[in-house]
Q: What sequence folds into this?
């Protein structure tokens, strides 16, 4: 409980990157705003700022104090607005929106998200440590093969093959040593069996052997029970029989229980010592069953003297059930078939660069067979150590040795919950973002330790669910893969939004800085920049954060902890678009009056028309570029657009509001109405971002992230 209640306060991989990006953008915006403030104030108070009619705005000793203060306040307002535009307050909104949207949609894919941050973390997962039973398999167990005494029995209905004594002891062990139950309806309907899947399979087999569960249980009384233990891989019970004899029954992992047996019962009901040949015979039987992906369970018993059983209640509670000199009664092979589609799901993960590892309590042969069937191991050649490893072998290694081989492990058999925890810790130390599935109470520490804990909704205990981040409602590995897909969608949507936002930031900042330094005036005023900020942050976040996942996402490698949030592809796209917008709008700023044939107009009106056109073109550039941001690395930016009604609605709303602002709210935004030709120019300027984006995607980018070039440069400078 102590290990699962620890809260390290550790941030998710995406949060770490977002903090860095937000700080970086904010610092640049603040620096630019200070520069603009200083330049404009210096120009204003030194008499270098002119009105549109050519008169100087401020003249020392002549301009009224109130007018000077008003002029200075307007300059400060522009600087503050630049900071507002630059600071990415839309990032938290975009993250929350995309996480909330994904969380709601993931419910339909049988995944209940308990912690929002787990959605995006799953997109960064580099490895999944999965249970076998119930996750990769159906958890519908049936006894399909058995060795009773020394004979192989293929059909349980043919119980005439069993000797009376052996049959009686076997049924006694099945009925007595279980935490399940059998109910036979009085009406004569189907037998109802409860318990764990393994218990149910063995109890069904016992019923077929002729077991009357209630009668057998009533004939004996329980002296002491030792429930199945995941560490020892066995469970036992001491029963007091009607003739005052004590029978101690054990059941558990076949090779472990077999090692405790010294005798077996032959066809004539005689006890026969377990010689070396017989041990080899039974071991070979276990290997053959395991190779056929069967779970192997051994059932054994021994007698005990009643007078040697502790008499006091306290002593009886402390009594360790004898487990030496056991008599082997049966070896049973239980089939738990792979889930349909699990091989495709594993293949999808491997194509996406996510390594799937199986961690199971079954023996290595069974684990190997299921791993081959599910595609975790591609061939027998892969089934060698350390790809295939036993829990106790891994446990015995030092911390450094575990870290060294953790990457290579594909299957861990005969593992305890603590082995799973050790594997998770080793993988995380190697830099992996680890997802873990678990269902038992003992899995809680591993679920808590992992970056993403995935509890099973059907077979999972409450403790496992409480320790998890996401609950897989149908216990299906294919649903785990869907969670990875949604996680990658979250990450991709955040990247789309950042590319869109940075393009606006860069363009708006450069346009205002260049204009302020050169002419002392800015083409985009405070109200206009706040409207652009609304498009960029709130509406942009809504539009891009709700993009549904695509199959394209599962053909990429996972984004690890140290990968940059802004990729080279994003830098290429945003710089091309920002450069285009800056170039066109600055040309309009400096040469707009002549280009638009406004030289004969009243200077003040001509200036307002020019600035209105710049503002309108800038907004429409963002509208068109929003489509480009949908598909940063694909040519077809319209693919799947009709499925995202919210995106289409937001783009339509933005255009309608822009028309209203230009045509009817001129006094509020300091704009004037534009004629149809000026609207056409604005639309053409915005539209050109589409062919420009296609051209930009033809330009190859280096695989090495941009920031690493700067690191190398700094190293050279210091050396």
A:
């Amino acid at each position: 409980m102590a290990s699962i209640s620890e809260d390290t306060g550790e941030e998710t991989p995406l949060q770490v990157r977002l903090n860095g990006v937000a700080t970086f953008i904010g610092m640049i915006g603040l620096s630019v705003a200070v520069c603009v403030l200083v330049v404009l104030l210096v120009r204003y108070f030194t008499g270098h700022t002119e009105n549109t009619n050519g008169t100087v705005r401020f003249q020392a000793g002549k301009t009224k104090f109130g007018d000077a203060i008003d002029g200075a306040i307007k300059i400060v307002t522009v600087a503050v607005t630049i900071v507002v535009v630059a600071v990415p307050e839309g990032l938290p909104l975009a993250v929350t929106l995309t996480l909330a949207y994904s969380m709601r949609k993931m419910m339909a894919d049988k995944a209940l998200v308990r912690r929002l941050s787990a959605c995006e973390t799953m997109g960064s997962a580099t490895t999944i440590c999965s249970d076998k039973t119930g996750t990769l398999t159906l958890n519908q167990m049936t006894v399909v093969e058995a060795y009773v005494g020394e004979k192989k029995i293929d059909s349980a209905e043919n119980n005439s093959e069993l000797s009376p004594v052996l049959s009686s002891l076997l049924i006694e062990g099945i009925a007595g040593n279980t935490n399940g139950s059998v109910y036979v309806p009085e009406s004569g309907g189907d037998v109802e069996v409860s318990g764990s899947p393994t218990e149910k399979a063995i109890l069904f087999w016992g019923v077929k052997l002729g077991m009357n569960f209630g009668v057998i249980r009533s004939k004996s009384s329980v002296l002491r029970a030792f429930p199945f233990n995941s560490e020892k891989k066995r469970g036992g019970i001491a029963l007091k029989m009607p003739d005052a004899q004590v029978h101690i029954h054990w059941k558990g992992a076949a090779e472990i229980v077999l090692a405790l047996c010294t005798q077996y019962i032959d066809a004539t009901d005689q006890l026969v010592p377990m010689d070396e040949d017989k041990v080899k015979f039974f071991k070979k039987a276990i290997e053959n069953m395991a190779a056929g992906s069967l779970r192997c369970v051994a059932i054994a018993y021994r007698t005990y003297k009643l007078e040697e059983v502790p008499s006091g209640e306290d002593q009886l509670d402390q009594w360790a059930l004898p487990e030496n000199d056991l008599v082997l009664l049966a070896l049973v092979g239980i089939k738990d078939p792979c889930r349909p589609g699990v091989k495709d799901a594993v293949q999808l993960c491997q194509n996406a660069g996510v390594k799937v590892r199986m961690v199971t309590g079954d023996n290595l042969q069974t684990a190997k067979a299921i791993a081959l069937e599910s595609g975790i191991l591609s061939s027998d050649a892969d089934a060698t150590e350390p790809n295939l490893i036993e829990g106790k072998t891994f446990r015995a290694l030092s911390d450094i040795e575990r870290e060294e081989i953790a990457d290579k492990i594909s299957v861990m058999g005969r593992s305890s919950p603590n082995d799973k925890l050790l594997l998770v810790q080793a993988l995380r130390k190697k830099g992996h973002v680890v997802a873990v599935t678990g269902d038992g109470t003992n899995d809680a520490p591993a679920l808590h330790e992992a970056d993403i804990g995935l509890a099973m909704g059907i077979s999972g205990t409450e403790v496992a669910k409480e320790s998890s981040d996401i609950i897989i409602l149908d216990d299906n590995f294919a649903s785990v893969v869907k969670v990875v897909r949604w996680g990658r969608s979250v990450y991709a949507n955040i990247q789309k939004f950042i590319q869109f936002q940075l393009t606006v930031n860069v363009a708006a900042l450069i346009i205002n800085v260049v204009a302020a330094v050169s002419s002392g005036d800015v083409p985009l005023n405070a109200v206009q920049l706040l409207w652009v900020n609304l498009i960029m942050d709130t509406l942009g976040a809504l539009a891009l954060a709700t993009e549904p996942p695509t199959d394209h996402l599962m053909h990429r490698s996972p984004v690890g902890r140290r990968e940059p949030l802004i990729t080279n592809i994003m830098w290429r796209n945003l710089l091309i678009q920002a450069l285009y917008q800056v170039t066109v709008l600055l040309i309009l700023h400096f040469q707009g009056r002549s280009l638009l044939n406004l030289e004969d107009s009243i200077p003040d009106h001509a200036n307002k028309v020019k600035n209105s056109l710049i503002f309108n073109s800038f907004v429409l550039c963002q509208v068109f570029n929003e489509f480009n941001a949908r598909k940063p690395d694909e040519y077809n930016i319209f693919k799947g657009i009709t499925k995202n009604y919210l995106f289409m609605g937001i783009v339509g709303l933005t255009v309608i509001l822009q028309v209203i602002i230009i045509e009817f709210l001129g006094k509020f935004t300091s704009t004037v109405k534009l004629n149809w030709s000026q609207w056409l120019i604005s639309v053409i300027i915005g539209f050109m971002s589409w062919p420009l984006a296609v051209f930009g995607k033809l330009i190859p980018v280096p695989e090495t992230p941009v920031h690493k070039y700067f690191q190398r440069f700094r190293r050279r400078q210091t050396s």
